[in-house]
Amino acid sequence: MEWLKKLNFKETEKWHPWFVENQIAGYSMRYGSNILFATIKGAGHVPSDYLPFEAFVAYQRCIDGATSL
């Protein structure tokens, strides 16, 4: 997150939770040039090992071109 701030991209979407099955799955924010910074709550360095369903949903939403997680 710090290095994104140093790139001076304009924040286009504030820090907010994103949901999977009505539960907070993580948090995300969007910057200019369509850069998305997202977390998966409770996941370690390999989210697909810790929370495979949430990681799949995040990946699928990005592939599908969702404007927000």
From TrEMBL:
GO terms for biological process: proteolysis. GO terms for molecular function: serine-type carboxypeptidase activity. It holds the Pfam family Peptidase_S10. This is Uncharacterized protein. Coiled coil: none annotated. Gene3D superfamilies: 3.40.50.11320. InterPro entries: AB_hydrolase_fold, Peptidase_S10. Belongs to the peptidase S10 family. The lineage of its organism: Eukaryota, Viridiplantae, Streptophyta, Embryophyta, Tracheophyta.
